[in-house]
């Protein structure tokens, strides 16, 4: 098959290795490391991450300079404070020296203003670069997913794909806005603060930092407790979201009203809401003891410093002055939280790498069905619309190796303008025929020929442009009727919409709505009946005006009256086009030019309706069963 090597790896993605799990907020570190460990191993990951930021090199360099300068400036005011006390307010020569004090105060204000402006600039640069990289990566991933074959989506949960696009890509911005800034800023702040403290007085520095390890350990313990509660809170939020999606969708509301279970759903939501309230309160309270300890520590250190300074002064130390004490306590207050921030840096880097690895895992997937380098467009000639299956066999990618193929050595030809119907028991393989013509799947063996060329030699865009599909399950967007129709042709005029809808026998119905073509159809078209949705789908295909029309059991879900109306629209749509109809109700294809009977993946009969009835085989049995089922009482 066209999937080639790597099919097993792609199939494994159906389980979504790490893809469906979100990053632990405020981090239960052990849980987060387990999630990170599950991330795929991507060769040259760091180089590929750097390549993403390469277009923003200048902004990144400026950002790093701003972080370093800002962190360095942050420790200057405390040193100037010492000078303000010792030289400006209480100089050895007597009263305050206002001139010197004014210079020091002005310099301090200038530093504060400069730090604030640098902080704003840094925030703007990091936010801009981080979100640009995130946005470009999201579009790149979305574009790549659009190119993936249909089987990828049938075996991969939608939630996993959404998690890659939203959670994983969304976390990329944090790499720059949080992680890099945290590493540079906190490191420089801690080093500069320690240097400043040592310059002021080394004895007081020992007193100030000796209790730091205790707070660091306490922070780790509190962080783990809070994160476990945060994990339960996220699970509860997920449950609430699931309840909302299930019960407030159109289908969910219809179900609850049909069985009069609204109060049950309200009670279920209220119970989970109470659980959420309890967890939120626990999460808030779990850190209060830690912050109380931090408050006590930060409040006690200056007092202890005052006491030690008094001992040093009593002992005759000339290095301890009033300015030294004030400056030292100011610098010391800046030391704790940068230290705590640096503790999470290693985990943040590991988490960021895991996010990138999961994103690159999807970007490295090779679509099983892609254009060859020498692919050509479909020729617009006399053979346009001719479809041939030449000894085609097909097995779905996830089927067991010893399973019977879905199609087995199928050969047939549908001439341009011919109406060909495929019928057979459920699971016989007839719908698979409709998948192979537009190359939604690739034949395992044999050739599918369109317009005289193997579909593998044709450009996919050109192939699909010549094929229109009307399926049993019509998909309409939550938009206007006009918008849904113009999905086939964005530049379609009002006259073209009217012509298509008239041919599909839906124009009068649309005009009966107060807003006409501007009528909102609702989620998945729930404001319309099944027959109305199906006729809009037919009109949409007519706007596309394809050479080949594929009807995949387009009327099997409709009532008898709707079926007649839709069938008339289908007859109009198929006129003058090559039509392949996958039929469940045999009464809809009795006028077909040729009927192919599929059973267990093989073509067992072919002919017109009369010929197949006279043959007395599988088709005759199926037809007789349906006639008996629909006959009165």
UniProtKB/TrEMBL annotation:
Pfam families: ABC_membrane (PF00664), ABC_tran (PF00005). Keywords: ATP-binding, Cell inner membrane, Cell membrane, Membrane, Nucleotide-binding, Transmembrane, Transmembrane helix, Transport. Residues 1-30 are annotated as: Disordered. One of its GO terms (biological process) is oligopeptide export from mitochondrion. One of its GO terms (cellular component) is plasma membrane. The chain crosses the membrane at residues 58-80, 100-121, 172-194, 200-218, 289-313. Residues 387-625 form the ABC transporter domain. GO terms for molecular function: ABC-type oligopeptide transporter activity; ATP binding; ATP hydrolysis activity. Residues 1-21 have a biased composition (Gly residues). The keyword Nucleotide-binding applies. InterPro entries: AAA+_ATPase, ABC1_TM_dom, ABC1_TM_sf, ABC_transporter-like_ATP-bd, ABC_transporter-like_CS, P-loop_NTPase, Type_1_exporter. PANTHER family: ATP-BINDING CASSETTE SUB-FAMILY B MEMBER 10, MITOCHONDRIAL, ATP-DEPENDENT PERMEASE MDL1, MITOCHONDRIAL. This is ATP-binding cassette subfamily B protein. The lineage of its organism: Bacteria, Bacillati, Actinomycetota, Actinomycetes, Micrococcales.
